[in-house]
Specification:
The complex is a heterodimer. In chain A, about 25% of the residues lie in helices and about 35% in strands. By secondary structure, chain A is α+β, with helices and mostly antiparallel strands. By secondary structure, chain B is an all-alpha fold.
Chain lengths: ~350, ~230
């Protein structure tokens, strides 16, 4: 299962010109508002007729099909539930036109996966934002789509609702074998869910590839934004000590709080570039719990006073953001061995299905 | 019955039949036109809108006269209809239905257009992505959501058709038993010395029908609103 997208479209003085590949798993389209992310979803779904497009799903061309014939699930930012139908009615509407679709997900399974059991008799008007979004997701899944589009499904929710729905999205990602295009401007969501990352700005793709690779690329720092820039590491929980989990990333060991996963569980750790401190020699008498031996892969000087340094942590990629003056004073350059220091409490670990 | 003489009863029956038929015939046309005006952009849209609204602003007598010119037995459309289907509209009760439909149409289109525009944006797109063809989207999403508007349009149209006088009397006159509807019967009685008593009875009946229609539509509207809003 993989999706190939090429779109050229003019709308007023905005020009969308993108081409990218979305393999199985979650592909995030990340960028500011106005980057053209939602336009891409509307073209892929067939709701918007572009000037020019080639959209192929497993080699089959989609661009000439009407929206109802594409079998693409679309979860909108607002849930768009049918107000004249109950939750059960909305779910059945999804299933209604999918009869005969092979290899489908069953109604009971969707209800269990998304925790909809107690909502079935309710009307959409009586649902919270998070509940409505779960129903919308279930409805889209029951249409047995070959591809799932999600347009900022969490953007209209407050932080607790977001936290409530994210585990469902992770469960879905683990269950569904279909490609998911996920539009967002929140990097914490993207880092947690995505496998592939497509960065967009002003209607074009500025970087694309495996999430870990794109986020560890110093050149992507200005594209992601200095506050959101940071590498994502895949690790395995080894055990717990003093309230800190030990997480193995290659041969290196991280000590982090807040990870409750059992030993052996795979977790994803996002390390913000601005939280990483570099030292030429191993610092001693320091409170930071993580002092990691790394090798500098590249140094990218920014336009302002900052610089991005790509680091190799026993095969995994780490990114540090330091000042240009620090780069000069420490004489940091490619191939140099040094130490990355990170404060245990500054790292946000995110669990990920194995 | 209830103080109505046979001629008055006939006028009431004819009025109900004409208004009912005019509503039923004009409603699908109004639905199509309202959809066009609410959802599509095309050259001449403003002109079409103006043409639909014309009977609302023209003196009804003028509308009736224009109908007579077009649909009379010597008019271009009237001649064609008679030749093709043997259908005669002028000075016939079928013509009263046409006159009532034309007068009711603008009110129906306005009510329905507002209903279409009040459908939350994106629901129809959502239905399409779930695999529903355009016609299924219309019947399963759009129509249930605009149902209160359809009802409002039908009630307005029925009321207008029931009360229509000027265009009807100009196009089909007031022939007792054929084209004499309730309003033209009341008007005719008032022209006759000593006809006030009969006019008063007819007036009471007209009021009763109007009150009943309003009560029925209110009841239906409440049920529909409860169903749509959930």
């Amino acid at each position: 299962m993989s999706l190939q997208v090429e779109i050229r479209h003019r709308q007023g003085d905005f020009t969308l010109d993108v081409a990218f590949h979305a393999p199985r798993g979650v592909t995030a389209l990340f960028g500011r508002s106005g980057a053209g992310k939602s336009t891409v979803l509307n073209v892929v779904s067939g709701l918007l007729q572009p000037d020019q497009a080639r959209i192929t799903l497993d080699g089959a061309a989609l661009e000439r099909l009407a929206p109802h014939a594409r079998r693409i699930g679309y979860v909108f930012q607002e849930a768009r539930l049918f107000p004249h139908l109950s939750v059960a009615g909305n779910l059945d509407y999804g299933a209604r036109y999918a009869q005969g679709a092979a290899g489908g997900i069953a109604r009971d399974e969707v209800i269990a996966l998304l925790g909809l059991e107690t909502l079935l008799a309710r009307r959409p008007a009586a649902l919270s934002g998070g509940e409505a979004q779960r129903v919308a997701l279930g409805r889209a899944l029951l249409a047995q789509p070959r591809l799932l589009l999600m347009d900022e499904p969490l953007a209209s929710l407050d932080a607790p609702r977001k936290a409530e729905i994210l585990p469902y999205l992770e469960a879905l990602k683990a269950r569904a074998g279909l490609p998911i295009l996920y539009v967002s401007h929140a990097m914490d969501e993207v880092a947690r869910l995505a496998d592939t990352l497509v960065l967009m700005r002003g209607g074009t793709v500025t970087a694309a590839g495996r999430l870990q690779d794109v986020l560890a690329d110093p050149a992507a720092v200005p594209l992601v934004g200095v506050r959101d820039a940071g590498a994502v590491l895949d690790g395995v929980v080894q055990g717990q000590r003093d309230g800190l989990a030990q997480i193995a990333v290659g041969d290196a060991l991280l000590h982090l709080p807040g990870v409750t996963a059992a030993p052996g569980a795979r977790v994803r750790v996002r390390v913000l570039a601005q939280d990483v401190i570099l030292a030429r020699t191993r610092p001693t008498g320091i409170s930071a719990q993580n002092v990691l031996h790394v090798t500098i892969r590249s140094v990218q000087m920014g336009d302002g006073p900052g610089a991005a340094v790509a680091l190799d942590l026993s095969g995994a990629l780490l990114l540090a953001r330091v000042t240009a003056r620090a780069v000069r004073e420490l004489e940091l350059r490619e191939g140099m061995a040094c130490f990355a220091v990170l404060k245990a409490t500054s790292v946000a670990p995110m669990s990920i299905g194995s | 019955m209830m103080g109505l003489d046979p001629a008055g009863a006939e006028a009431l029956r004819l009025s109900l039949r004409v208004a009912g038929l005019a509503t039923v015939l004009a409603l699908p046309v109004a639905l199509g036109l309202a959809w066009l005006l609410a959802r599509r952009d095309f050259p001449g849209k403003g002109l079409l809108n103006a043409a639909i609204l014309l009977p609302l602003v023209l003196p009804p007598v003028v509308t009736g006269y224009l109908l007579l010119l077009a649909f009379g037995r010597t008019g271009p459309v009237g001649r064609a209809l008679e030749a093709a289907f043997g259908l005669v509209l002028a000075f016939n009760w079928t013509g009263a239905v046409l006159a009532a439909s034309v007068m009711a149409l603008p009110l129906m289109v306005r009510a329905l257009r507002l209903a279409f525009e009040a459908v939350p944006p994106g629901l129809e797109d959502a239905a399409a992505t779930l695999g529903a063809r355009p016609w299924s989207v219309f019947t399963t999403v759009t129509l249930p959501l605009i149902a209160p508007g359809v009802l409002a349009g039908a009630v307005l149209g029925f009321a207008k058709a029931l009360g229509e006088f000027g265009a009807t009397i100009t196009f089909v006159a007031a022939i007792p038993g054929q084209t004499m509807t309730l309003p033209s019967a009341i008007y005719t009685e008032l022209q006759v010395p000593g006809g006030e008593a009969r006019a008063a009875v007819l007036t009471l009946w007209a009021c009763a029908v109007a009150v009943l229609a309003v009560l029925a539509s209110e009841w239906l509207a409440r049920r529909m609103a409860a169903r749509v809003a959930g």
